Structure formats: structure tokens, C-alpha cells
Amino acid sequence: MPLWFMRHGETNYNRLGLCNDNPKRDVHLTDTGINQAEQAAEQLRHKPLRRILVSELPRTRQTAEIINRYHQVPIESHPALNDIQSGFDGRPVAEYFAATSHDPLHARASGGESLLDHKQRIKHFLLDLQSRQEDAVLIVAHEETLRAVSVWFQDLPDSALRERHFNNGEILEFDWP
Q1: Chain segment 94-113, per-residue pLDDT in tens
Q2: What is the DSSP string of 49-89?
Q3: What's the predicted TM-score (pTM) here?
Q4: Residue of 97, 150, 155, 169 with fewest CB within 10 Å of its CB?
């Protein structure tokens, strides 16, 4: 059975080009983000979802609740799905990229996680999910998370973590290897 992974809908911080990894900040879906979630809900409408997992950041739950209108399955948050701890919460994404450009895979800016740290966190989450033989699950998360997921499922090199890009509302489908 498949697993579906989705990037949350567009947020006010996406529009402003700001980092966010603090669940207490007022980061929410824009009207465009709501429309993206509604479009994803239509795409997923007839999928046999058993539950939805989200990060602790409200934008993922907000997206999941829109999708769940068709499924009425449990929505559970999981801290392992949180966005990368950038060390730049509330600051421009461009500053984060500048601070990590010397070594994008290993750099830990301002006490945050490196891309490889984040990938390991996501890998452990996936291995745990796999050990419980979970399937028919939708995971609503963040672009960095989708990068780690796609690299893991497609057995790509770590360098692909910086090369992969996912739009708000984009859905990926994978089967367990």
C-alpha cells in the first residue's frame, strides 16, 4: 500500500520569504494556501487514507483538516515531522541560505540542524513507521521533509537534498521498498 506525503499550503511566511520552525509563531495558510489544500483534498478524495500525520507547526494541521473533510480519519502530530530547525526562525530564508552556503549539507547555522541532521530525523521516523507496517497514511509536512523523504525512497545521494524542490500543496506517493 502507498504512503502519501504532502507539503502544506502556502503561508504568510512563505509569501514574506521567512523561516519558521517555532510552532508558537502566527504562521498560517493564506487564501492561496487554502486553495492549494482544497485542490489536494480533491486529488486525495478517493484514496483509502487510514490516518493523517502532521508536524507540530499549525500550517500542516490546517492543511490536513481541509483534506480530512473527505476522510474523517485521525490527525496526529509528530515532532519528528517538524521543519528543519534552521536557527533562523522569523528571519529571511535568504539569510539562512547565505549562512549555510559554505557547506549546505553539514552546516548548522545559529545552533540549528544541518540538512543531514534533518534527514536522519526523518529517516528514523520512516523506519519506525515501516516497522509498524503502516500504510495508507498521509503525511503533511514541509519542503525540507519532502526532500529527505524523496531522497530516502528513491535512494538518491545526499547532494539531492539541495537539488529537490517541492511546491506548496504538492503531493508525493511512495510504496514501501
Answers
A1: 999 999 999 999 999 999 99
A2: --EEEE-SSHHHHHHHHHHGGGT---EEE-GGGSPP--S-T
A3: 0.95
A4: 155
